[in-house]
Amino acid sequence: MARNAHLNRVGKSVRDTDALSKEEQEALDLAADWSDISVGLRKDLGQQLHSQWIKPIQVGNFCKETGTLDLFLPTEFSANWVNDRFQDRLSLAWKIARSEVRHVRISVHPGRRKLGDLNLRPDGGKRAANDAAYATLSMGAMGEDSLSSSVGLDPSQTFGAFVTGTTNVLACNAAERMAKVEQPQFSPLYLKAATGQGKTHLLHAIGHSYMQAFPRARIFYCSAERFMIDFVQALRQNEMMEFKARLRGFDLLLVDDLQFIIGKASAQEELLYTIDALLTEGKRLVFAADRAPQALDGVEPRLLSRLSMGLVADIQPADIELRRAILESKLTKFAPLDVPADVIEFLARTVSRNVRELVGGLNKLIAYAQLTGQEISLQLAEEQLTDILSANRKRITIDEIQRTVCQFYRVDRSEMSSKRRARAVVRPRQVAMYLSKVLTPRSYPEIGRKFGGRDHSTVIHAVRLIEDLRKRDADMDGDVRSLLRQLES
Predict the structure, then answer these.
(1) 163 and 245, same domain (yes or no)
(2) How far is CA 353 from CA 47, 232, 367, in A?
(3) Which of 298, 315, 332 is the last residue of a domain?
(4) Do the annotations mark residue 264 as ligand-binding?
(5) CA 405 to chain centre
(6) Same domain, 94 and 139
(7) Whether residue 423 sits in one domain with residue 280
(8) What does the pLDDT look like over 129-164, one tens digit per residue?
(9) Which in 177, 240, 288, 310 has the greatest CB count within 10 A?
(10) Is residue 221 helix, strand or coil?
């Protein structure tokens, strides 16, 4: 019902302003349906499978004549995998959501370049095929036939666009060092980070920066998944000698999502030999994965040893200061669009799982506002980002807040409900009320009842007072920030 009410509001806005075409309205309706379907699939499949295979799906066009809906994925491998395992489930879900959908077609997004055969013959011939997850960049050796770095490396993912903070500064500095003219003190560099924390961005940034430092360099960038596909293809076509020769001729090797090479013994052995060959010649290697080398199950000890011998740089989840800085940085692209400060603060505080979701939430909010002509507000953010917000929200209780505040200010827990008016207990009590309103969905009367049956007006006064003190008193603002970090960690 909530979704229908929302669509009715959108429809009214469109009729009043004539802001949307029929195609745009259809796209919004499909997106809303997919949002509901995706939530259901996440519950059925679990967070890990959903994030890896379902979440990347993009909804394409719907042909009313044939009843065919297009669903797109970024690579052939992922499209085939989802088609083999989830075709029936996706078709059924869409038929339930929309009776006119009779067929669901899963394929590679038409904006992606499909992967052709990788020609590894020494005499040249075809260039390596490329998509966003696979690139062979070679300058000088291939002359005019060289590939532009914009083909395989995202031009937006540079060091200049990477926002640093305390949680990622080590990895960023190590990545910058890897791309400098001077030989790095460590190789390989291993970037370890959970999904959406910036490790792929750093891989692309290393590639761009290295090309600037060494214009005639030969760079190989791929995912471990792509490495596996090309390895098997070369094996089947009896082209292993060419595969090895080509692979070991690069100056910089960048391999992403290394966790997907787990359990492939022959490919692991080839990667091991490649690492040894490149290190012996002083070449540079960078790997990225969602776990530390020692946590890669099914990887033989010799390969683990090579992956660990350089520097393992950990990227921790972005803290709230870094999340704010990232949002402010992204907003410069949309200037002079006005996004209120309270919306930025709300997103930074609420979307804490990974940076990709954070930026995606901001982009979705801005796109919706532009398509519908609505002003961006806190209410609009809460309405349009329900899936992202619910997935990120940690359930913090008022009891937990009271306990943490009492420990921080060294007051007895009973003071949260007492009638004492001494400043030493009143201020911590007010801070706890403020945090209860910020971090929980509880109403003012509900919060008042948890603080000794106080009236809702008392809670409102406490919230406004602490908000004002945070603006004027650096010590108070520091206390609240410290408490927020404790409660949200």
Answers:
(1) yes
(2) 12, 35, 22
(3) 315
(4) no
(5) 32
(6) no
(7) no
(8) 223 333 333 333 333 333 333 336 788 889 999 999
(9) 288
(10) strand
What residues form DSSP beta bridges with 190?
Answer: 287, 312
Q: What is the pLDDT of residues 437-451, one digit of tens each?
A: 888 878 888 999 999
Residue from 389, 380, 409 nearest 475 by CA: 409
198 is in an annotated binding site: yes
- pTM reported for the whole predicted model: 0.55
Q: Is 196 annotated as a binding residue?
A: yes
How many domains does the structure of the chain reveal?
A: 4
d(CA 272, CA 260): 15
Same domain, 179 and 310: yes
Does the annotation list 43 as a binding residue? Answer: no
Asked if residue 118 belongs to a domain, the reply is no
Q: Distance between CA 121 and CA 357 in Å, rounded? A: 42
Return the structure tokens found at 357: 């979701």
Sequence-separated contacts (24+) of 166-170 with Cβ below 8 Å: 166/319, 166/321, 166/322, 167/315, 167/316, 167/317, 167/318, 167/319, 167/322, 168/197, 168/198, 168/315, 168/316, 168/318, 168/322, 170/313, 170/314
Could you list the residue range(s) of the whole structural domain that residue 12 is in?
Answer: 1-112
CATH number at residue 422: 1.10.1750.10
